[in-house]
């Protein structure tokens, strides 16, 4: 019997989940625990899959284990198959008048920290039977997890993604400059581009879509800051900015409260258009949304409209 045929016959939900959880936890024992089986049973499942695939799927890595390239391919397909089965169960539940299911959601930092909590509150009140599992990281990492099948839906600020990913914009954002009040020589809320060279730039981590946009803007105007201090989060950047340690450029949703309180003042660059982008819902191309995901996206759009009004009131609209 051909190996591919044997692999097809062995491809059950337990083994699918095992590969997905190894990718998630980096450990065979942790993956086995996550799906409710013992490690000896997990090892036997892996041996059968490796024999059928004709190549190694898992290798030791330090104190844990990691999937080989072949293992990652199968894990991604397993996650897609499990997502499809989950969607089918939700659709059957919808026919019976029920609203249940699990949404595996990833979010980049700005939407994950400043938009998602209110949305989840609204969604949970309307759909108490749906579980939402959330992971927050930089946009590049979240898109990587989407492609691997670790998350099935994502909220990101990235303007571009792999051809395997569909991006559906749902909310406009603006990246604005912020500084300790009185620190920067602003005129009518604007800073001369040449003045940027006098200040330290408080920067997001690599992989951040907002930081990529800022870096492209600085290259376009041909100005280099006095130095760059890369910090791990928007919250750390805001704290450093409040102490007068430099200038920062962040989503207006991240700084709205601080600007409203007077802890920070916002600004734009003179002679440049507003640095506008969109937050998007990302999913694998061609994969339909489950009923629960459709309800979540509808709640997201409705809830974020209120947050947009608040942020625009705190941070002046582009002129």
Description:
The chain is α/β, with parallel strands linked by helices and 319 residues long. It folds into three domains: 3-76, Arc Repressor Mutant, subunit A; 79-171 and 278-310, 3-Layer(aba) Sandwich (D-Maltodextrin-Binding Protein, domain 2); 173-277, 3-Layer(aba) Sandwich (D-Maltodextrin-Binding Protein, domain 2). Helix content is 48%, strand content 22%. The chain contains twelve helices and twelve strands. The chain is elongated, with a radius of gyration of 23 Å. The termini are far apart. Residues 1-5 have low confidence and may be disordered.
Task: Provide key terms for this protein.
alpha/beta; D-Maltodextrin-Binding Protein, domain 2; Arc Repressor Mutant, subunit A; single chain; 48% helix
Summarize the structure.
48% of the residues lie in helices and 22% in strands.
Task: Indicate the topology.
Elements: H1 3-10, H2 13-25, H3 28-35, H4 39-53, E1 58-61, E2 64-67, H5 69-95, E3 101-107, H6 109-114, H7 116-126, E4 130-136, H8 139-148, E5 153-156, E6 165-179, E7 190-191, E8 200-203, H9 209-221, E9 227-230, H10 234-242, E10 247-251, H11 252-261, E11 265-269, E12 275-284, H12 291-314
Parallel strand pairs: 3-4, 3-5, 7-11, 8-9, 8-10
Antiparallel strand pairs: 1-2, 5-12, 6-10, 6-11, 6-12
Helix pairs in contact: 1-4, 2-3, 2-5, 3-4, 7-12, 11-12
